[in-house]
Amino acid sequence: MNFNAVAQDAVIPLWPNSVPNQKVSDEQEIDRMENIRWVRNVQNPVIEVYLPSKAINTKRAVLLFPGGGYQGLAYNWEGVDFAKTFNAKGVAGIVVKYRLPISKSISEKQYEVPLQDAQRAIRIVRSKAKEWEIDPEKIGIMGFSAGGHLASSLGVHYDVEVYPYQDEADKFSARPNSMALIYPVISMQSATTHGGSRESLLGKNPSEELISRFSSEKQVNMSTPPTFLLHAMDNEAVPVENSTLFFEALRKNKIPTTSHIYPTGGHGFALALDHPLLKNWVVMYLDWLNTF
Questions:
Q1: Domain that residue 222 falls in
Q2: 1 lies in a domain?
Q3: What's the maximum distance between 2 C-alpha atoms anywhere in the chain?
Q4: What is the pLDDT along the chain (292 residues), one digit of tens a residue?
Q5: Angle at the Cα of 77 (from 158 to 48), degrees rounded to 5?
Q6: Is residue 80 part of a domain?
Q7: Is residue 51 part of a domain?
Q8: What φ, ψ does residue 82 adopt, rounded to 5°?
Q9: What region, left, alpha or beta, does residue 173 occupy, with left being phi > 0 and alpha being psi -120 to 50 degrees?
Q10: CATH code, domain with 159
Q11: CA angle, 169 then 111 then 17, to 5°
Q12: Strand partners of residue 61
């Protein structure tokens, strides 16, 4: 089935040779349309690149990390749909099909696998900036739900070595110039986290060291990128405290931050085109992005 009315400009594998932390498995990637398009059991992580027309190109780019509880990826809903929306505004949209830590093909340290793919993805984009007519200092990231956790992890752990050197792309920085976290899982602390995302990433009985390491609100420092936060107070899946705790950590470290907390919207609203309060949030985000 052709899921995309507009074809992507490029599909690039993240790893040129062997994929780190991956062993031979009989597991097959699943990509099917249910209520939305879900991708599961990712075996060959890639980036799908959607570039704007030259006439309206702002030379900005945003890497998109779909959510799905670290068990799947809501691939169109929180990925391709946004890439196309951004293209219409002159922004390159790059969807990251990242590996999921619950995969049977993961050989060790399953909690590092999504971050490995995230770091590698932004380095590849920076290495291709000239070819794709992107300003390498205007590369942002956006993550949703568990993808928001991955995006925040990249924002606070961009300089942590989690995989061995691959090629010339790894000479580029993995630091995003900005990040947008949309109804994100931020904390792995039991009182705040989304239990399914935590168990998928860290396992059933994680150590306190791992919990702290992957609680992004505890890892913020003065080099953390400027951040855009969006959450709804009635989100019963991922408590709004994930965003408010992160906001407070950003404020303490004097990181330029915009936070939008809405009374309604629940979880997983994506573009929210039918919601009376949230329907214009992408416009607000793009206005904010243009300031960096």
A1: 10-289
A2: no
A3: 53
A4: 444 445 678 999 999 989 999 998 888 999 999 989 999 999 999 999 999 999 999 999 999 999 999 999 999 999 999 999 999 999 999 999 999 999 999 999 999 999 999 999 999 999 999 999 999 999 999 999 999 999 999 999 999 999 999 999 999 999 999 999 999 999 999 889 898 999 999 999 999 999 999 999 999 999 999 999 999 999 999 999 999 999 999 999 999 999 999 999 999 999 999 999 999 999 999 999 999 8
A5: 55
A6: yes
A7: yes
A8: -75, -40
A9: beta
A10: 3.40.50.1820
A11: 35
A12: 92, 139
What are the structure tokens assigned to 121, written together? 């993805």
How many other C-beta atoms lie within 10 A of the C-beta of residue 2?
Answer: 5
Query: How far apart are the two ends of the chain, measured CA to CA in Å?
Result: 38
Total domains in the fold of the chain: 1
Q: Rounded CA gap, 34 and 276, in Å?
A: 26
Q: Whose structure tokens read 């995989």?
A: 163
Q: Determine, yes or no, domain membership for 239.
A: yes
pTM of the model: 0.96
